[in-house]
Amino acid sequence: MDTIDILSKEFFTQDFAEEQPYSELLGKYKDIARNYARMESAVAVLSDMRTNMSYIYYGSFSRMLEIDKCGDEGKVSSIWEKEIFKLIHPDDLAGKHLQELCFFHFVKHQPKSKRTDYYLISKLRMKNGKNNYISALHRMFYVSAPSNDTLWLALCLYSPLLFDIPAKCLIINSANGQMTEIGKQDSTRILSVREKQVLSLIDKGLTSKKIAETLSISINTVSRHRQEILGKLQVKNSIEACRVAKDLKLI
Q: pTM to 2 decimals?
C-alpha cells in the first residue's frame, strides 16, 4: 500500500454525519478558493473528502504552467487533481503525498478550535509547457466538518515560489508564526514512547505474550496499547498500523 492509498483510505473512512449544512458551507469555501486564485494568481484546488470531488480555480500561474485555463473553474470526480500532479516532478510528488499524510495526522491531533491555525508549506518543481521545471510554492489547509472532528475539505494552492523557504516542507502556525519542519515535528503527539516500543515489537512479529515479557508489562496492558495505536493511526489492524507508522517515520 503506497502513501496515496493510505491517504485515500484514511480520508474516506472518516465519519461524516449526514444531517449537516455541507452544501451551504461548501459554497463558502469554494468562494475562498476562487478568491485565493484571483488575488494570489494561484491554482487553487478544493477537495471534498465526503463526496470525492475537487473544484479547481485557475489563476495567472496557470499561464506559467501553460495550462490555458486562466480564470476558469474546473470540477473533477476525484480528490486527486491528476491534471496538476502530472506537472509535478515525480520525486516531489511522492514527497508531497507523504507530507500531506504527516500533516493529516498532525492536524487530527490538534484541538478542533486550533486546527485552522495550521497550514503546510513546501517547495515543488513543476513543469511548464516547454518541459522545463520551474520552482513553485505549495500550501495546504484542512477544514473540519461542521459538527465533529472529521477533516472534510483540503485546500491546496500552487503559486510561483517568490522567495525561498528555510526547509523543503514546513508546518506553519499562523497564529504565532511558529514553523515546524516536517520530519522534525514532535511524533510523540501521535504515539507515546511506549506505544512506539509496542508497535516496533509487533512489526518484528512478536506476540502479545512475548511483548509483555520483553517490556515487563501485562498482556492486558499490551492489548490496551494495541487499541490505542489503532485509534491514533486511524487503522483497523496491526499490519496497517506498522505500514502507516513507517510512512510517518514513527518506527
A: 0.76
